[in-house]
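User: Hi! I'm a student and our assignment asks us to look at how structure tokens line up with a sequence. Could you show me two examples?

Assistant: Happy to help. In each example below, the sequence comes first and the structure tokens follow. Example one:
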Amino acid sequence: MASAAAPAAAGSTLPPPLEQLRHLAGELRFLLPGVRVGEARETTKEFDRETFWRRLREAAMAVSRAATTLTEVFSRLPLPSPQETQKFSEQVHAAIKAIIAVYYSLPKDQGITLRKLVRSATLDIVDGMAQLVEVLYITPTQSPENLISYNSVWEACQQVPRIPRDNKAAALSVLTKSVDLVKDAHEEMEQAVEECDPYYGLLSDIEEDNSDNHGDEEDILGCPSNRDSYWSEEDQELIIPCLALVRASKACLKKIRLSVAENGKKDQVAQLDDIVDISDEISPSVDDLALSIYPPVCHLTVRINCAKLVSVLKKALEITKASHVTPQPEDSWIPLLINAVDHCMNRIKELTQHEVES
């Protein structure tokens, strides 16, 4: 009898199910900082790529199954008992720890770019599971939030088989994303110019016709009355070389990506990482420039942001030129792009020189 009573006594000391979920969510959150900054585990074993990817896929599937089970049992009444909740919580925690351990087993010599992609996928899974557990203890039983959070975990796990398998493929993936981001920024800038330029001309004509009207300004034909919402002629003149510089940025990224695709070698991981690291700075620099051309425009700020972008572009081109992806640097496209970038910057300097001298 004593032996039969012992489990019951132990079970009675367990926290209530929702309290256990709250504790589990905290434990999962606690793991996130370690994944963000964690280093690869040192080992004397030779890295087996096929084994690694098989283990990562299996670990992601285990997380997905644990998320499914947890969502099902906490989306209906009655809720699981404390003992059952403990079992489910342990399964979730073990699955998350397992996929983190697989990530840690990826050595640095396989490429920093590849490790970043695997780390990002792992973080999405851990963070998604933590959010799911939080939602389940805050809004148990059937709730739209439960399904949304579960789908986030499921989708994060489904992304694992789509991760590039080597550092060259990872580099191409990141470069492609950068190209798309710069392309989007360029299109948004062109659209902004198309939308704002007609307003500027429209208000100029209207103001000439109503020069004697000194009453309160009101919106005309739906156009804002604030002159700071429009580009001056000087602004519009400055925007032309800025757009050309963004086009040159897009061309640089496309050519770098093409060179990596055609000439990149999987075993040259350090050079590929260097190319990706500097190329990854182009899109944020383009965004800074794009934001600075919106009215009211500070010409000095535009000049500074253009100079920063040019510096990043030249560095990216020089690193690419010195790497194995450019077999004949003296006959390459790189000098042409450098000249194009310099031409844009020289024109921007001419148009903003008065801001520097004032």
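Example two works the same way, sequence first and then tokens:
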Amino acid sequence: MEPDILNAFTQPAALNQFLAENVIAQGEKKKLIKPTSSNNPKLEELKLVLTDWINSTLKEEHIVVRSLEEDLYDGLVLHHLLENLASLKLDVDKIALTEKKQRQKLSVILEAVAKCLQLEESQLKWSVESIFTKDLLSTLHLLVAIAKHFKPSLAMPPNVQVETITIENTSRGLKTANAVEYITENKENLEAQSKGDAFDELFSRAPDKLDAVKKVFLQFVNQHVGKLGLNVKDVESEFADGVILLLLIGQLEGYFLNLRHFFLTPASTTEMLHNVNLALDLMTDGGLLNFSVNSEDIVNGDLKATMRILYSLYSKYKTKET
């Protein structure tokens, strides 16, 4: 067992209790909030805000939520909440008594959520399994996404972050990785973006230098994707489908992307968005992206958005040897 998993818990008893409550099968991977973050005041505030919002929304239906983990896992509350907020009727039983029917119901509900929020599978930070097994991190991500879409005026505390530990049960034992994850938006990053950045300055005050910057990025990109027999000539158009971006990330990060996970020759905007969203997720997971990006901007050939992404990669890997 790696020492990181021991460091995640202040006492051996807490570790034993954690492993007893979270059985991780061979080959399985789970990401959970560290116990050290469980009593985070801002996390508790967020849970209270979301609980009050749900109870207020469903007051006329006489539904009262006391625990986000315990009261939402079977889909009953989520069913009522989504029908209320989205004014739609879901083809599921009001009450599902068996585990099989609860999972089926939850699957229909979460599919409807993704459709309402216009999210692709690669963008989802929750799943039927994680919600059903009462995973707090997934439940919070789900509720925050629903609240932001249907009740943008809801005063959720910004910058709510938690320490997470990802545990994978491998043939050699438990493998762990620590990270810090934001549940609500990083207000400082949002404010910084609203004030503008170097690319805003470049486009507005020094457009004559734009071609020189594009040339630097093209040299950087071709230095790495050239090994794959590729030659990129245009920053504005050749990153729109996400393919070059994915291949570049793979080269820089040193891993092979399974061709089943993306569209090598995307034939529609939906497939292009899938590729770009996957690339942004990989960059976020790798700590390469610390600001919000609209994937549609990349697909639509927004030069400024594309150059921001390339700069994030360039700034870390400009000295990487091919």
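Here is something you could point out in your write-up. The two ends are 35 Å apart (CA to CA).
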